[in-house]
Amino acid sequence: MIDKSLANSRPDLVLAGRTLLGHSSAKGQQLEDHYFGSIPNRAMAFMRDLEIECMKLGIPIKTRHNEVAPNQFEAAPIFEEANLAVDHNSLLMDIMGKIASAHDLKVLLHEKPFAGINGSGKHNNWSLGTDMGVNLLAPGNSPKSNLQFLTFFVNIIKSVHRYEELLRASIASAANDHRLGANEAPPAIISVFVGEQLSSVLDDIESSKSDSDKRGANTLDVVGKIPEILLDNTDRNRTSSFAFTGNKFEFRAVGSSANCANPMTVLNTILAKQLKDFRANVEDLISTKKLKKEEAILSVLKEYIKSSKAIRFEGDGYSDAWQKEAKKRKLSNNKTTPEALKAKVSKEAIKLFEEMGILSEVEVKARHEIEIEEYTKKVQIEGRVLGDIARNHVIPTAIKYQNTLIENVRGLKEILRETFKNWQANKWILSPKSQGISPKSKPKLMP
To answer: Which terminus of the chain has fewer CB atoms gathered within 10 Å of its CB, N or C?
Structure first.
């Protein structure tokens, strides 16, 4: 949030949502004093009014705290069913603008409003539940109930690996291109973080040879220990775009100005397709190899763990080493929106949406065309605003300063001219003859 009058004085902020020209402040976020400080009174007053208005509209919201960048703040809507949560999220952005205006403030929802300062994003916390309220990503108290957790857990990882380009396309926008890969946002490479201990569990299951040998027989025992593993497993890799955080996944790459419907639709669709294929694979093993259901499930999960291993990454997503490693793993790294959006109109994507009854081919292509057009127009607007600022603000100011320098130089020359005349008139330099020395010798200067 910034003062409304200051925002209105910047044509680029008004028209493009971000500053296109300027210089960095001497004091930015290097001291991190804003992040760890108390909420300023003016911001607190805004937050109170926002929460009251949200309560009237039935939007459950909590959390009041500063974020890293100067004048950056965070609010957290509470879990709801996806369709309702998405509607409330969009409504919340509108309310923020109206409440801020009443406080003579301007809320900047652009992903990167200022160069060199942390941008803003949304953390889409996403889990799965039954109609009875059972969280399918929460481990139970027995190996059997944990097998249920493991089934959905592994299938989610598999679906993200299978459709990682489509998932990247779901968060693509002109504004988010400035944020992805910066030091406060995950890179354009989609990866899954599950933590060291859960990675070890998956590796143990993958390395088991069969469900009849000694190690395979212990697989369900390993699965049974998952609640103990998760008890203290509160790590949260902030450089990962898709991280498991206890009983949910956190899709951290969504932009702050985005409509969450797009990434949520893609997430739900790719998992629905994956679960459909999973069921077919399990039933095929049961019928052809006469395996028990639990054995068939573990066998399929083991194969999924192995085939989707490339998407799992526990390290620093900001590092150059990860860029090289991701390339070796054949993961996409689509850094711009036009490049990323190609995945939406691929044959695989169209087939996926049609098979799952989500979108027809015409609808998929229409949405792609709209997103490309929106990207083009936003970049075009920024270019025109930059040109206007250069012509109407930068160049006139530069010429004015140039004229000031010219006048300064002209004044200095005039002073020097007058000084030289006085110097000649007062005979500051005497001739060699008047000083009684040889003409070949250098003259002495008067004191």
So the answer is: C
